[in-house]
Amino acid sequence: MTVSGKGGIRRKNQEHYKSLKSLDALHIACAEGGNADIFLSTDDKLINASKRNKRFLKIEAENPLIWLQKEI
C-alpha cells in the first residue's frame, strides 16, 4: 500500500509489505507518504517485521522508549 499525492491510498503488490498486517502496512505507507523521519510504535511484531524489511522501506520503525533513550 502506498499513499498517493492526493491523500488517497492504493494497494501495490510489493514484497516488503507482505510480511506486515494490512493495517500495519497502511500505517507504514502513510508515514512514508508523509515523509516522516521515524515511525514510533509499541507493537513489537510490527517493529520486527519492518526491521526485517528495512532495505525496502523508506522509514525506520522503533519503540518510542528505545528511540528516546538513543536521542537523549
Automatic annotation (TrEMBL):
Protein known as: PIN domain-containing protein
